[in-house]
Each structure stands twice: as C-alpha cells, then as structure tokens.
Design brief:
heterodimer, A: alpha/beta, 5-stranded parallel sheet, 4-stranded parallel sheet, B: 4-stranded parallel sheet, 42% helix, globular, disordered C terminus
Amino acid sequence: MSIRTTSCAAYGAALGFMSVQDAAVIVHGSRSCQNMMFSFKSLRELEKRKYRDDLGLLESRRMVCTEMDEMGAIFGGSDLLQKTAQSLLDNGWKNVFATTTCVPGLVGDDCKSVARRLEKSNPGCCVGCVEASGNMTGDWEEGFNDSSKVLAGYMEESPEQDDSINIIAERYFYYFNQNIDDRIIRMLDDFEVRVNCRYLYRSTMDEIRGFKKARCNMPVIDDYISDTVLKQVSFGNSQSILLAPNGFDAYLDWADEMSKIYTPRDSLQNTLEAVSSAKERIIETTDRNCNGKTAIIYHEETDRIDWEVDALKDIGMKCVVVAKNSDRNAVLRRNQDVMVEDASKVTEFRALLKEYRPDIIISDTDLGTSKVKQHYDVKDRIVSESDTLDIRAPMMKQFYPGAGIEGVVRFLTRVNDILGGRGMGSWRNDI
Amino acid sequence: MRRYEPDGLLASVLATLSFDDTVVIFNGPCGCYNMVAGTANRLIPKEESCKVDNRMECDFIENDDFIMGTVGKVDRALDSMKDMEYGLIAVIDSPGVSVTGDVNWKYGSRNDSELLHMESLLNIKDFATGYDIATSQILASYRKERRSGGNGPSVNLLGCCPSFLGWKESMKELTSLLGRTGISVASTPGCGGSFERLGDAYGADLNVPIVPEYCQRSCGILSDDGGPDTMAPSSVPIGFSGVSGWVESVCDELGVDPEPALKVIDEKRRKASYTIRSAYHRDGFESKPFTVESVPSIDSSLSEWLEDYLGMIRSDEGPEMVYGTGYTKRNSDDPGWRDDTVVIEFSLPPQTYFIPRQTFGCAGASYILEETFARYRSKPSVSVRQGRIGHHVRPFGEFDYLAADAVDVLQHLLRDHFLRRSHGIDFTRGP
C-alpha cells in the first residue's frame, strides 16, 4: 500500500487557521492528534529554513492541545476547550481558533457554543471553531474550507474599494520557498496596486477584517478548494475575480484584464515583451525534441491541468488526458478540444498506453518507473512525482508550477531534456 | 509554550515494525495512518525483506464506524493479509478508536498466537513508555518454541528503538564489540530480528538494556517468563566512555575479559583525539555550556562523556549546544535558550543519510563529535539573528590554520620585541 497524502478534516482546519499569523490554534482532542499534526507541519517548516531563527516562530508552534483523555471521552471535553481557550486569551492572544478531532466529535462536545460564549465574554477577541470531528466530516479539504468559512465570517463590509488586491490560497500545506513566494508580488509591480491580504497563506486578523476593501480577488490555484474558498469570500460583494496566470498566453490575458482594473505602469510593456520572447525562445529550443510528440497526462490528485496542456500545445505536442471518470470539466476548463480518456483501472491505463504509444507520461503520482516499464516498453520516459521537478514539492498535493511563467519554462525545459535523452538518472533502474 | 514530544502511538508502531516479520493493522482513519506511516516509513529502512509499505495496513475508519464499531473493517483488513507471510499481526488503535472501547473482536478462524491487539491509549503515554509497553506486549504474546542456550555466554539486547539514528548500525557494532569478548547475542527484541526467532531470547544468559527507559517492562516480562535475569549496566553505550563502561558492565556480569573490546574502543578514541588535535583544537569548545534533552540514562551518560572528553560544561541556562532525542529542534524557540544555540539531534525527526550514521557505539561517538564541531563552526552570527543575509564561518581548512599559526608566531615575536625594548629582557638567550 502506498502512503497517500490525504489527512483528516481537523488537520485541514488547523492549517487554515495557522495561516493567520496572530492567532493561536487549539486542537481539541487527544495529545497524539496534535503531535501528528505538529510533527508533519513543523518538519516541513524546518526544512524550509536554514537556521532556527530564519522565519521567526514556527507556525506549528502556535498550536495548542486540550489533551483530552479517557475522562474527557466519558464526561465530555467542552470544559477543557473552554479552559484552554480562556488561558490563551488571558495570556494576551486576541484571536483563538479551534478545531476538533474524532474524540470530541464522538462524544458530541458542543464546541461552537463554547466559542460563542468566549467571544461574548471577551469583547474585542475573535474565537472561532470548526467542528471537524477528525475525519468524521471528511478529508483535509473539507476542514480547510470550513476554516475559511469561519474566517470569512469576520470580514467587515466596506463601502469603498481601493487600489488593492487580495491573493487567495497561494498554497495549502506549507510555504513556498522565498523565491516563488515573491514571484507573485513581482508580477504585481507592473500595476499601481497594493496587496491587501494574502488570504489563507500569510495574513493577520486585521487584514482579514479589511478583506473587502480590495477591488479584486486573485485565486492562485485553479481547483475545487480554491473555488469553494472564493465563493465563501466573494459572496454578496462586488469584487472582481481574476485567476493568477500559469504560462505565456495566460500571462498576457491576465495582464490585459489587470489593466482594466488597475492602472498599468510603464514597466508592463517590457514585461509583456519579455514573456513573448520567452515563449518564442522555448518553442525554438524544444522544437527538435518535442514538436509532434505525444504526451499522456495521468494525474490522480491534481484537479485542473489547463496550464500543462497549454504549455505542451505551445511546443507542438499532442496531449491525451487520462481521467478516472469522463468528467472533462473536472480536469479541463479551457482546452475542450483535447482528448480525455477514461482509465479507472490499471488494465485500462495499459490499453491506452498501447493505443497511443506516448513519448512521455506526465503524472503527479509515483507511477514508479519500474511499474510502468513492466507493462510498457516504449521509450521509457516518464515525468512523475519521483522526479526532482522543483515545480512540485514531494508532499504537495497539486502539480502546480506557481504563478507566472518561470515554473512553466522549467517544466517545458525538463520535458525537452527527457525527450532529448537527458536528465533521467540511472538510479531509477535499481528501483 | 509547551514542549512537543513524540508519543506512545508512534512508538508502538515502531516497536512492532522493528521485527522483520510483523505486520501492523492500523485501526483508524487514513489521516492518522498517513502521518504515522509516513514517519515509520522513513525510520524503518526499506530493504527487500523489510518494506513498511507492505507491512502496515489501514482499515480506513470513517464516520459511522466510530459509532457502529470497527470489527467488520478490521476483519476485512485481516482478510486482505491472508496470503502474506508474517509472524505476528498487531492491531494498533488510532487515538479516536482507542476511546470507543471497541475491543470485543471475534476472529474465530484466526490463530490467537498470530494476532495481538495492542493496548489502547498508548497515545497518552510518552514515547519511551509506549515503546516499552508495545515491545513487552509482543514478548508476552510469543507462545512458540523456546530454545535453550548454545555454547558460550550469550545475551539479549533490548531498548534500542528505531527512532535512534542508525539503530541497525548501532546494534551491529554493539554485537560485534561483545563478539570480540566471546559473548554472542541471542536475540534483540524490539531492535531488529524476527518474531519467529524470539524463542532464542529464553536461552540467553542475561538481558542487557541499551537504554533502560525503553525496555524496563520488556526485560521484566522476559525474566518473569522463564527467561534470563536482567542486569543494570553502568552506562548507556553513548560516547566512548559510555561504550566502554557498558561493555565492562556486561563482561563483569558474565565473568568475561572485556580487554579485546576495550582495545578497539581505545583505538577509536585515540583516533578521534588525533583528529581533534589536528583540526579542531582551536575552536574553543572547552568550557562551552551544553545541555542534553533526553531520557535520564542518555542524559547522564552523554553529559558525563562530553564533560570529561571535550571539557564542555553541562548547563541548562543559556546552552550553546543542545543534544536531543525528541523534537528538540522544533522546540528550539524556547526562551531559556540563546539565539545562536546549536541543536544536534540523533533521534527523531527521521533523517536520511547516504553514509550510515548512528547514535550508539564508537561510530556514534564519532558522529556526535563530527556534528558538534561542524555545526559549531557554521552556526549563524549575530547578523543572521537580526535578519540580515550571510553567516559567519569559523576558520576552516588547512590554509586557515596556517594563517592562524602565522599570527601566533607574529604575536610571539612582537611580545619578545616589546619585552626586550621595555625591560631589557632577551628571551633568545638562555638563563
């Protein structure tokens, strides 16, 4: 059995709340649950920083547990939650959010009432709760969306909008590295615009309260979670919505739309020229190895892959998308002309491989070079999770290049290298 | 902020999987499973005969299962393991399931000796206790043939948890050291070996703890159940003095001459001393404050060795170096520590190295020395702490030392010159 990246709703909610930099997060449940969450989150955070004080306090260190035990499981744990939250408030925390694990869900703790009571008795403080009940209400996506729902409840109405923008859900689990983190901000330099709130990534409670001041909301990842979050935060307001671009044409379209909302600076023209010339350059570079070749895209977890199909089409490749069901819209919004094939079973996938004889397989799943090799001896060229593509971190659910064109250029360069017979280590043969 | 430490749930999984032929059924939701299995996967080496992926199954509890019970799902998971070759199946409950009291399973068709339901609520125990309880439960469930002892003295080694860096290498080295004195290792419950061969443990002459906190109960179970007596070694085999003390204690207890093993340890220690003399003696590590965050036995053995061998000083107030076996680095923003405290971990989090590194034995001591000097040299300077880029690297490499020597000579000559001029003393002449 392979290790899946799925986690419970309680962890999803904790992740959402931890993105608020001035909030403490309570995991209401057994100590083990918090330990597991802490272990995973902090490990990733530590890997991102060189020294212990590079990024200040670890986000995961703002997580507190009610440490429910047998007594709590028998007599209920609401009191524990109240006590823990009150002690945090007494210690100066203004914002406290809680998420519940399986045990309180099982015994039926009414945690929302506790949160409401505490908020009433501590004016000026925000106390929210997601009754995720571990995984009883679903996987981490549900918990993450629920945390957004709670946070969206604190957004204040704003009669006027200013020249600012909200960036939404840049990433769900962990931070990017600093370079990718700043890329999206650099893209905005070409416009007279200020970042109002990096919602569900790195924001403060004040920024969330003033969320509706911004003129536009810019989701970064195009998937189900982002869609849901966007509906929650945009409900009943007049903010425009503009998806952050991934790729050359998408960038040009995005710049066009942005120019309608915000005043462009002189530098924009240079940027657009650079994007166009980068596109020409990559087409020229990849022409020999990639033009006319066939790629099968087989993703198990990534929701939408328009950017990938756009990029491969740009360099003249034919794409076949393999989906587990035939819902085209679930994977493709823009590229309606691309072939989508069903393959819910391994045998069906093998049949597709025989039919299309692809030159390359692109996957977010560790297909394992050997696994496919056993059944398929054509060219043996695979881009999978096990590759060291830095556009996809090992534990990242999304096969996502980041906003802008840099990620797409790197992706196409990698595809070009592989099809040109380079960039595949022989260590794979030992697996 | 409270300190975060790993708990007994992870420990119980590690204790079970430390045997080559045991299988775990994780009775819980996939979120908990992923987090525990993810860590176990990194700690237990993936070898042909030992693949955690294939040895840890989950029954994926969800929603109503918490209310209706998990018996059906555990049964199904057991069915899926029908064709596997194993010595023991251990069913380990997730924190949520452990409070449901769902223990009245009926596995009519199964052989009791192949199935163990691990004690619930290990998640509220600390890591060492959880590991000890799990190992002792596995020992207690062994009902197969008990073999008598062979020729010459033999011992059982216990208490080296897979969470310790290079646990397998440590076991190999300790076994080889004892082997030099003529003592053979009959069994290593909880530290490698197979469940099927656990019967050998009853024919040994002595139970030898490596880290006593991790095996008190297990040793007790073995001794009470017709196995050998348990000794109390004078130290944990960590650091050169710890290793020699441990070997001497075992040999004393069995009336064997420890000299052949001590010779090897002495040789390694001398080699390390030469390395320090030739490359590191200018680093000024003597009198540096350090602390150890671990179970008391490791704390005392390691502290004693570092104080004696390196001349460092044990101090909990503002330590410069911290040696830890838990989530030490992740807890490192504790107010008691200095901003530039260096953390050296030789246990969790799971670390992967190409060249084997270990905690115990002479190679473990060398690793601790190497980490101490390497990390001490590259620790960040004040500028990093204040958020500026760059870090101060202490002199490194032969040329730096030549330069340092040249400065020493120059200072000496200047001092001579000054004394001659001011006091009329000529050091070049003899008395």
